[in-house]
Design a protein that fits this description.
3 copies of one chain form a homotrimer. The relative contact order of chain A is 0.17. Chain A has one helix at 5-17, and strands spanning 32-41, 53-57, 78-86, 97-105, 113-122, 127-136, 143-152, 158-169, 173-184. The first copy, chain A, has an 8-stranded antiparallel beta barrel with strand order 1-3-4-5-6-7-8-9. With 186 residues, the first copy, chain A, is mainly beta. Chain A is built from 1 helix and 9 strands; from the N terminus they run αβββββββββ. In chain A, a hairpin with a 7-residue loop joins β4 and β5.
């Protein structure tokens, strides 16, 4: 086959227009994705041995009590956590990593949280970390936060994590299902 | 027109050198930009009904009082907020979204803050979130923070937000003008 | 030299496959890198003049005391800092910028922290900011966090920062060596 060179140039030019270099078309399907669960057991004054998170900040109206929420939607209550990550929704499954960071409630009118945390993996399957931040309007069935970076196996990755509350019990336990979708892999 | 193939190859090679793939040239003009204002009314012990933010952490020298700042530059005072976003600088304009997150003051010598927050939109105009972090040296007229990710309409976007203090009143109210400039759109 | 056009097309096609546009190959060597040190002097109740950081949050079991850690691994203790950055490991060297942000300890069983902070530069050498988040398992000699964005000289940069504890003294002072490696420059 022999094509006219002019055609070749035009074809190449079209390819360039379509390339991310020119911001016109980027893939909207993940280059990698994973589903994980993590389990949060909040310190309530009686469960020191089992708790994986604790309130460390609260507004004035909490009167310095960090084990009971002073109001319905927990505005301002800030928790630090080190939660086990599992591959299924069973709290007793072997952890494959740790979810470490903070969340705080940030609405006076509904259940709304904000998250800043990392997934930390150090197993034969995954080594490295994934870093997340974003708003978590917990009353919505499914919500998206940003995957802002990664290290190790997830070197420089970016993406979106879709979060669902998989279980919620007695103000002490919740389980989140996290669908990590990387759209930028390296 | 018929060009020598050698020339074509050379031309293509130059195009590649100029492409982000090789980190040499990226566009420095926004692919999208917006101006928003958000309004912060800090809880001072008397304005529970109107307050949109509250101090939830302070250093030891604050003696547990989270409604009065113990020192001039508020070092260590940490606030959680859920502030209305408007399109103009009028506090009474209809909100188009919420700015949700935290700020804390982090200097003993000047007014300096650090921000971690999201813009949350759920209207016909915008659906999705934009996530921000960065240093906010409030004594400078204009300062830049990072737009580290987005979801929904702002899927995977990155950029810079230029922040200006548009109003500041009596330790209780401030209004920020936020010029969100996306340089990476998807 | 005259190559068959078919060959040219095939060659161009290969180049495209290798381009980041198609997520297959991205450079894993930094486009820029720097080594910095920053110095943290934690407020302990007696060093108000020298302290560069202060605890602003702690769990209930800390009983409101923010100058003494209630347990071995400091779970939940949250510090705000404004630390000098130097080019070498000497605390008395002239600062070239400030590291501003927060860290908190997030494990009940080992020394583990989480970081959210910015490097702020305003000198003839560097003007701009670099924004970081990530898990900091301080018991490991070297650990990686994400560089999630930058402004000014570091406009839109992304990368990895490799952190090492360069010194640790008496619960009051630590020095971190930070190797900032940008893999995405603009």
């Amino acid at each position: 086959m022999k094509l006219p060179t002019t055609f070749v140039i035009f074809f190449i030019f079209l390819l360039f227009l379509a390339s991310p270099a020119y911001g016109i078309e980027k893939q909207h399907y993940p280059c990698k994705d994973f589903v994980f669960y993590f389990h949060d057991v909040l310190y309530n004054g009686k469960n020191a041995a089992n708790a994986t998170s604790a309130i460390v900040g609260a507004p004035q109206w909490g009167n310095g009590n960090l084990t009971v929420f002073a109001d319905a939607f927990r505005f301002g209550y800030t928790a630090i956590f080190d939660d086990p990550i599992t591959l299924d929704n069973n709290f007793h499954s072997a952890p494959v990593g740790r979810a470490q960071g903070m969340y705080f409630y940030d609405s006076k009118k509904i259940f709304n949280a904000w998250l800043g945390f990392s997934f930390v993996f150090n197993s034969t399957q995954h080594k490295g970390t994934i870093n997340f931040i974003g708003a978590d309007p917990t009353t919505e069935k499914s919500r998206d936060i940003s995957v802002v970076g990664g290290t190790g196996d997830f070197f420089m990755h970016r993406g979106i994590a879709t979060i669902m509350t998989d279980s919620y019990e007695d103000d002490v336990y919740f389980r989140l299902r996290v669908h990590v979708k990387f759209y930028e892999c390296w």
